[in-house]
């Protein structure tokens, strides 16, 4: 989980200050398909 969190912060941290600002968070969410990430696909 730590590696996933670190990678997520690196990808969203546009100014490389080690933190995600609200604006950076919003930009990251615009590029993410939340419905796809939070859905479970069932096979027929």
TrEMBL record:
GO molecular function annotations of the record: calcium ion binding
Segments traversing the membrane: none
Record-annotated EF-hand domain positions: 1-35
Tagged with keyword Coiled coil: no
SUPFAM superfamilies: EF-hand (SSF47473)
Predominant location category: membrane
Name under which the protein is recorded: EF hand
GO biological-process terms attached to the record: protein transport
Family of this protein: Belongs to the calcineurin regulatory subunit family. CHP subfamily.
One GO cellular component term noted in the UniProt record for this chain: cytoplasm
Organism, scientific name: Oesophagostomum dentatum (Nodular worm)
Keywords carried by this UniProt record: Calcium, Cell membrane, Cytoplasm, Lipoprotein, Membrane, Metal-binding, Myristate, Nucleus, Phosphoprotein, Protein transport, Repeat, Transport
Pfam families, per the entry: EF-hand_1
């Amino acid at each position: 989980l730590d590696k996933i969190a670190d990678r997520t912060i690196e990808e969203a941290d546009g100014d490389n200050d080690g933190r995600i600002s609200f604006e950076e968070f919003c930009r990251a969410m615009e590029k993410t398909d939340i419905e796809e990430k939070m859905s479970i696909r069932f096979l027929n």
